[in-house]
Amino acid sequence: QVQLVESGGGVVQAGGSLRLSCATSGLSFSGYAMGWFRQAPGKEREFVAAVRWSGDNTNYADSVKGRFTISSDNTKNTVYLQMNSLKPEDTAVYYCAADITWGIVSPLLYEYWGQGTQVTVSS
Questions:
Q1: Which of 84, 69, 78 shows the shortest CA–CA distance to 21?
Q2: How far apart are CA 5 and CA 27, in angstroms?
Q3: Whole-angstrom Cα distance, residue 45 to residue 10?
């Protein structure tokens, strides 16, 4: 059984930083793509970043390039999202997701999901 559990959300002032974690279990194939998505109130869920478990590929949404960094620690079965220079428009529920296919950005195509963690950036 696959489980994804996010943590690390909170309230931060604009310009601040947060690090989200996604602890995983049950993913038996190291080639899985691990993604972070977010959903703001009244908006559709959108792609933020993705990384292969192997760590040799990453992908970012244009809106977070240069500010967010995604990484994976295979020894801890955990994926991280380091978020710097946060803006009020980054406020959303952030979700961790996993899928066997690399390169997809549509949330509709990811198979496994966590429960989400709230990130609020105040101005």
A1: 78
A2: 13
A3: 19
First to last CA, the chain: 40
For residue 12 the two structure tokens come to: 């931060």
Kindly tell me if the per-residue pLDDT of 103 is higher than 90: no
The CA distance from 37 to 106, in Å, is 9
Q: How far apart are CA 25 and CA 105, in angstroms?
A: 22
Residue pair 50/34 in contact (Cβ under 8 Å)? The answer is: yes
pLDDT in tens, 14-55: 999 999 999 999 987 778 999 999 999 999 999 999 999 877
Distance of CA 60 to the CA centre of its chain: 10
